[in-house]
Amino acid sequence: MDHERARSLFIEYRDEELAQELRFELEEHLRTCPDCRRDWEAYNETVTGVSALGRVKPPRDFVQKIERKIGRRSAGRFFGARNEFNLSFALVSFVLIVFFLLAYLFIASGREVRVIPRAGGGDTEAGPVTGGDTASGGPRREPSRLEEGGTEPR
Amino acid sequence: MDTLVERRLVRRLKARDPRAFEMLVERYQEPVLNFLYRMIGNRLEAEDLAQEVFIAVFKKIDSFRGEASLQTWIYRIASNDVKNRRKYMGRRPFDTLPPGIGADRAADDDGGSVMSTRPSRPDELLEGYQMERRIQRAIGELEEEQRLILVLRDIQNETYDSIAEITGLALGTVKSRLHRARLALKEKLDIGMR
Ligand SMILES: [Zn+2]
């Protein structure tokens, strides 16, 4: 085996893909030819060095970064849209909840103000509308506020 | 990845399922980023380009026919992006792209070595770090086609068959180019002549 031929076999030799006979021939050449042996060692060392290079790790928020980019470029059609929608949806929901809560509190307090004096007064009973029952149970009469609104003041 | 699992993932990607896209990125982010980093030698640029690769995958997934594996297809997109970026960089002022395509800056970006085997002694650490920089710089000086095949084979551990699919080259060409790339790298690193 000549030097040229020996060196051309390095790739398969390293992959351990040389047929046995050819491998023996190459190894015999490497044993007797210092130049090719040195060349093989350097070749092998080079590949080993490259293979041992560290691996770069992606940042933890890599997916989110990409999704944000897609969101921006698709004008919110993908990914970005979902996030923006969620945010505004949450905001609108919060405002509505607060609004209804305040409205409820306002109405509830307004009802108390109106109902308590009437219940205490007793003389403004809307007897005919709510039935003949003339019991003085003020609080019981409370649900009739709506009906009372409809009755004529006497 | 299992062929069946991959097929299901592709179907969900085509339906623009956000969770499927997250799975895709989680599965391939490391090989893609590492590949790009070794191809261009700069951490920040590699990260930026990796994002573009996944955006391209998201956009082009409808054209994926499943003839090659998903990984092969992604590598093909990534290597095209590297080529296009090189063309673009070629028109930019030289100082933005130092010799060894930013290998020096890359080392700084990392704030240290990314060697997988971590030596404990400071002198070993320094030696490993310097060796890594030397190798990265030498890889950056290879011809682009040689670098592509060397990175795919010796760093990314891709098979010859998949490299042939990624590059569109014949198997014999892949092997002969890899051999030449290794010889060229050996010369640049001066291994065996010290
Ligand atoms: Zn010889």
Outline of this structure?
The complex is a heterodimer of chains A (154) and B (194). Chain A is an all-alpha fold and 154 residues long.
Note the main attributes of this structure.
heterodimer; A: 154 residues; mainly alpha; 9 helices; rod-shaped; B: 194 residues; Rna Polymerase Sigma Factor, Chain: A; Arc Repressor Mutant, subunit A; 72% helix; binds zinc ion
Strand content of chain B: under 5%
| SSE string of chain A, helices as H and strands as E | HHHHHHHHH
**CATH structural architecture of the largest domain in chain B:** Orthogonal Bundle
Measure the end-to-end span of chain B: 43 Å
Radius of gyration of chain B: 18 Å
* Total helical elements of chain A: 9
CATH topology of the largest domain in chain B: Rna Polymerase Sigma Factor, Chain: A
Could you please describe the fold and organization of this structure?
The complex is a heterodimer of chains A (about 150) and B (about 190). With about 150 residues, chain A is mostly helical. Chain A is built from 9 helices and no strands. The longest helix of chain A is centred in the middle third of the chain and has 42 residues, at about 80-120. Residues about 120-154 of chain A have low confidence and may be disordered. Chain B has helices at about 5-15, 20-40, 45-60, 70-90, 105-110, 120-140, 145-155, 160-165, 170-190. Chain B is mainly alpha-helical. The longest helix of chain B has 23 residues, at about 20-40. Classes of the chains: A mainly alpha (about 150), B mainly alpha (about 190). Chains A and B meet through helix 4 and helix 5 of A and helix 2, helix 3, helix 6, helix 7 and helix 9 of B. The structure holds zinc ion. Zinc ion binds near residues 3, 6, 33 and 35 of chain A.
